Amino acid sequence: MPVIDFLERNARKYPDEVALVELNPEENDRRRISWKEFDLVEVTPFKEYRREITWSVFDEKANRFANLLISRGIKKGDKVAILMFNCLEWLPIYFGVLKTGAIAVPFNFRYDADEIVYCAELAEVDMIVFGPNFIGRIEANAERLSHGRLLLYVGDNCPSFAESYMELVADCSSAPPNIDISDDDDGAIYFSSGTTGFPKAILHKHRSLTQAAEMEMVHHATSRNDCFLCIPPLYHTGAKFHWMGSLVAGSKAVLLKGTRPEVILSAVSKEKCTIVWLLVPWVQDILDAIERGDVKLEDYELEQWRLMHIGAQPVPPSLIKRWKKYFPNHDYDTNYGLSESTGPGCVHLGMENIHKVGAIGVPGYRWECKIVDEAGNPVENGDVGELCVKGPGMMTCYYNNPDATAETIRDGWLYTGDMAMQDEDGFYYLVDRKKDVIVSGGENIYPVQIEDFLRKYDKIKDCAVIGLPDKRLGEISAAIIEVKDGMECSEEEINTFCQGLPRYKRPKRILFEDIPRNATGKIEKPKLRKLHGADNLVAQETET
To answer: Residue 410 and which of 30, 198, 270, 494 are 20 to 30 A apart at CA?
Structure first.
């Protein structure tokens, strides 16, 4: 059943219950700063910026937008791009697109003007819905973008080159459009992360969306009593499909803008959140803030918080050990996935398997996994190979890219490009991205293993290990290290600590600088390699 059916069911069964909350403490801070600038500090503080909608209003907004799209000529199979920051309008717009039978195409809000054009043309987008923060980027190529497609603006003061969502949607019917939609219809196009070049367009059927939603509810036992805190951007499959567990359960979710430790803990406390999905840097920041005394847990109501889970990147076991020290009653889970598998969960640890922290887990709900060698043959337990997955959440294809599709989907299996191993208990461990493996003097070096080791050092906040060219060995390993705030660390210290590694795994170069991560928390290693003179390696990379 398509995910829109869950929304319509919730509107019928729980019409007056809160579905979504938008919470923006950062906006509050900006307004206070502006008051100080105008000597208005004596004014009563601005109340926290907070909006909410019920399930019935959510569904009505989606219906209105669907009817608006139909009135503007959008039909089944057309593509509607969404370029907006997280807000209360985002999900109703997304579901409005789905209700028409059109294909929702979320855009990464970090795209520059040229990338927006590239993705719009690659996905053959018929309409772009965009918010206030993107006026400049759309205007830069407005003539090219508006050629053969509609530009719809969500916000006040609509620019002249677009039409106003606010004005048009108000006159549209809130009745459902009643378009016949099946699981076999195309539902969404997502884009690969683009950390190694321009992204590819990933086409999914409605079946994939429903699989991801139901899987999330099963994996985390999401119930009507839960409240999910969503911080990452909704354009990404991770955030959206973790939220869809709440959709299936019919429970409340909070869209939070801001990642400072006190902002996250305050939101959990005030909104009574029970499930929180965090990225590794945010977990580190919360723990560091606790240990520095910047935040005191007794200042917040956190007893209802039952689950913290992490995805989008390898998780060092030492980090979870630290977390459990301060939150001993929390369940924990980690999820592995990729946009080609409709986001997180094709492999997941499972809340009952915290003793296996460090593993990405076992096959997710309705998924199969295997590890193969270069010839596509299964490897023995304990050997490293490429992780392959198969299940109802697999992409249909890379849109308009048959060669890349054929390379990635073989004999019904999705080749992930990630190197992994399986232990004797059936748990999978992520070793590294295939393209990130360092070959030094004939030895394969897996950066994730070194990164996990380095993160045990108490002065290290974050780290990344990359390969750099070397005339003698081909490549050598270099450790980029971000030191915790207020601490100092030397190359000698790191080299001494690394004596605990086998000699061939010890980094040959130590560099101290901030670690760049994209919006989903993944380390941007191609950017680091290019910065440190590994351009020849960058040129060889292909997006997977």
So the answer is: 198
Residue range 191-210, pLDDT digits in tens: 986 544 568 999 999 999 99
Nearest-CA neighbor of 446 among 501, 491, 496, 497?
Answer: 501
Helix (H) / strand (E) containing 428:
strand 428-433
CATH of the domain at 534: 3.30.300.30
Q: Which strands make up the sheet holding 79-83, listed edge to edge?
A: 163-164, 150-153, 127-130, 79-83, 103-106, 186-191, 201-205, 397-398
- Distance separating alpha carbons of residues 309 and 241, to the nearest angstrom: 14
d(C-alpha 146, C-alpha 139), whole Å: 10
Of 166, 188, 215, at which residue does a domain stop? 215
3-state secondary structure 116-178: HHHHHHHCCCCEEEECHHHHHHHHHCHHHHCCCCEEEECCCCCCCCCEEHHHHHCCCCCCCCC
Asked, for residue 91, whether it belongs to a domain, the answer is: yes
- Structure token pair of residue 484: 């915790």
Helix segments in 371-421, DSSP class H: 402-408
Measured CA to CA, the distance from residue 303 to residue 478 in angstroms comes to 42
In tens, the pLDDT along 443-460 reads: 778 788 888 889 889 899
**Has residue 101 been placed in a domain?**
yes
pLDDT of 39 > 50? The answer is no
Cα 458 from Cα 460, distance rounded (Å): 6
Cα 15 to Cα 31: distance, rounded to the nearest angstrom: 34
Strands 79-83 and 103-106: parallel
DSSP state of 408: H
> 192 in helix, strand or coil?
coil
Given 191, 215, 239, the domain boundary residue is: 215
Q: How far is CA 429 from the centre of its chain?
A: 20
Give the domain CATH number at 115: 3.40.50.12780
CB-CB contact of 356 with 427 (8 Å): yes
Residue 442's pLDDT is what?
A: 60
What confidence score (pLDDT) does residue 523 get? 80
In-domain check, residue 72: yes
β-strands 186-191, 201-205 pairing: antiparallel
For residues 201 and 217, give the distance between their C-alpha atoms in angstroms, rounded to a whole number.
27
pTM exceeds 0.70 for this model: yes
Structure tokens at 123: 């996905």
The total of structural domains in the chain comes to 2
83 is a domain residue: yes
